[in-house]
Design a protein that fits this description.
Elements lengths: L2 E5 L3 H13 L3 E5 L2 H7 L7 E5 L7 H10 L6 E5 L4 H9 L4 E4 L4 H11 L12 H13 L6 E4 L6 H10 L8 E5 L5 H9 E2 L11 E2 L1 H4 L4 E5 L6 H13 L1 E2 L8 E2 L3 E6 L3 H6 L5 H7 L2 E4 L10 H16 L4 E2 L1 H9 L5 H15 L4 E2 L4 H5 L12 H15 L4 H8 L3 H10 L8
Parallel strand pairs: 1-2, 1-3, 3-4, 4-5, 6-13, 6-14, 7-10, 10-13, 15-16
Antiparallel strand pairs: 8-9, 11-12
The structure holds adenosine-5'-triphosphate and magnesium ion (MG).
The site of magnesium ion has 4 residues, from helix 7.
Length: 428
């Protein structure tokens, strides 16, 4: 279930929206003030923001401006009062994804949401024999509660497979919740996972339910599990074994029925040998290991995947595209070290700049951009650093480890930089 943030100062309206959002199969969070939302929440946690226009202190337009100022690209739907078309127009100019004018029906809301967040029905392409086999295999184990450990290079589709398992399990009506163990600091991760009671530590002004509980009767995806701190690994092990968790500051454990899927792009056994990963936890997670092959090992998937991404974009842009023979050759010959994600990003860029409907391979200038640091003349050092880091990440298919190696930086530095750029949750 995708999380949606609702910002409205009027409680009854917020509640009605919250109910409607739930009926759309999404997970609502309500805030009564946009200022609080900006201060207290990480807006990147949300797939969509629904905000009222008329609110005291900060109105919907200012809120939208603040969101964009922070470089956050989460889609925003603005709700305006009856007859205030100008506001709606202003909102669209500021980058709102859409607007709704009061009063509106549930169907109107559903349509707008559906347009912005198309349901992820056909979300998996598997044409290569190895992939077909893999998908059939995970479908078979999906209904059992077996713990799955997904390994594979960055961008191979670990999250896609995890969602597929959830969808084909008995838990599909429960929540699918993902948490990236590498993106969050150790102290925060514990409270994100297990939650905390009000007053458990400075700043814990409210009780917070952790992801383990949110995923109760559903599936919890623990991304990049190798990055979890050793001490926290013990608590995770306990949660899995005892099927109960301890909220930070809680008086008694809470029973949870959560299926675990973990992913890693490191060799976990190697991490165990190096003393960085608990052996007992490794065996708990490694019950059903699945390695997702790189795109280089399943070239038969390249064109079907490209077609899939193109058709998704075509319906979004209201325009049709075709793959020219030159483009087809180019796609099948390129190495795709960033795997499916790199292919997806590449298709996206190609479509965006395409002058004709028949897509063509890129010209040299466009391709060399990431290699050519000399281009970076002028601008502040900070800007150049940002460009260089982002270009290198782009060139490695957003593989932070590889990018760090190329740049001579630590992965942590890259992560911190991405946090500075507000791109730490970026999944492209
Ligand atoms: N088989 C597939 N069919 C369709 N789309 C796919 C497939 N595999 C991956 N993708 C798309 O490629 C992108 C990367 O996939 P995903 O996020 O699942 O990779 P990942 O292995 O989890 O990467 P990372 O290690 O960086 O977290 C996503 O946008 C996803 O939708
Ligand atoms: Mg992932």
């Amino acid at each position: 279930m995708k999380p949606v943030l609702i910002v409205d100062d009027e409680n009854h309206m917020a509640e009605a929206l919250s109910e409607a959002v739930k009926r759309c199969g999404l997970l609502p969070t309500v805030m009564n003030s946009p200022i609080d939302a900006l201060l207290k929440l990480n807006l990147l946690d949300y797939s969509l923001i629904l905000t009222d226009m008329k609110m005291p202190k900060m109105d919907g337009l200012e809120f939208l401006k603040e969101i964009r100022k922070r470089g956050l690209f989460v889609p925003v739907i603005v709700i305006t009062g009856y007859g205030t078309v100008e506001n709606a127009v202003d909102a669209m100019k500021l980058g709102a994804a859409d607007y709704l004018m009061k009063p509106f029906s549930f169907d109107a809301l559903k349509t707008v949401i559906g347009r912005i967040m198309p349901s992820e029905e056909t979300d998996l392409v598997a044409a290569a024999p190895v992939m077909k086999k893999l998908v059939a295999m995970v479908k078979e184990v999906a209904p059992s509660d077996i713990t799955v450990l997904l390994t594979g290079e960055s961008g191979t589709g670990k999250e896609v497979i995890a969602k597929y398992i959830h969808k084909h399990s008995m838990r599909s009506s429960g929540a699918f919740i993902a948490i990236n163990c590498a993106a969050i600091s150790e102290s925060l991760l514990e409270s994100e996972l297990f939650g905390h009671e009000k007053g458990a530590f400075t700043g814990a002004s409210e009780r917070r339910i952790g992801k383990f509980e949110l995923a109760n009767k559903g599936t919890l995806l623990l991304d990049e599990i190798s990055e979890m701190a050793f001490q926290l690994q013990a608590k995770l092990l306990r949660a899995i074994q005892e099927r109960e968790i301890d909220r930070i500051g809680g008086k008694a454990p809470v029973a949870v029925d959560t299926r675990i899927i973990a992913t890693t792009n490191k060799d976990l056994l190697q991490e165990v040998k190096a003393g960085k990963f608990r052996e007992d936890l490794f065996y708990r997670l490694n019950v059903f290991p699945v390695r997702i092959p790189t795109l280089r090992e399943r070239k038969e998937d390249i064109i079907p995947l490209a077609e899939f991404f193109i058709s998704k974009l075509a319906s979004k842009m209201g325009r049709g595209y075709s793959i020219s023979p030159e483009f087809r050759d180019y796609l099948t010959q390129r190495l795709w070290n960033g795997n499916v994600r790199e292919l997806e990003n590449f298709i996206y860029r190609t479509v965006v700049i395409a002058k004709t409907d028949a897509l063509m391979p890129p010209d040299d200038v466009f391709e060399q951009k990431s290699e050519d640091a000399k281009e970076l003349s002028g601008g502040t050092v900070k800007d150049m650093e940002r460009e260089l880091i982002l270009n290198t990440l782009e060139g490695t298919g957003w593989n932070k480890t590889k990018a760090a190696e190329k740049l001579g930086l630590s992965v942590r530095t890259i992560r911190n930089k991405l946090k500075d750029y507000n791109l730490d949750k970026k999944d492209v």
